[in-house]
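ok trying this again, last paste got cut off
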Amino acid sequence: MQDTHTNSLGWLLDQELGTVEGVRYAVLMSSDGLLKARTATIGQDDGEKFAALTAALRAAGKAWDEFTGGAGMRQLLIESVGCIGLTTTAAKNTMLSVCTTGPDADVGLISHHMVRLATRVGHELGTAERVPVAEGAAGAGGAEGGSTA
């Protein structure tokens, strides 16, 4: 298994989001929850869990958007007593998700850095859509691709 912090995008998350006041950790994932990169402040196992959880929340957000008119979803925010979670589209089939250090974190500042990162390097962050092996789309997932969510 590839370490998603030491890859070419992990350092970028550390540089662009890991230094922003109020960010506990950040992950970059495919839209179906496959972890691509993480900050040093979250371990591999927890990063994978966070990515999967975020993908489930995104699916609920998309359903909510469709139910309320379907104009499109830009960002997902979840506020709990101890922290705030922010998720935004980073590139094609790719999301960026952040957990704050507490409920008083500057969500505007953090969102600004998330969008800036996605805009600055969005072309590098995109993920090809994974397809079921039975469909056999070459280069879009292959034997390791699994199924789409």
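PB: full thing came through this time. Residues 61 and 76 are 7 Å apart (CA to CA).
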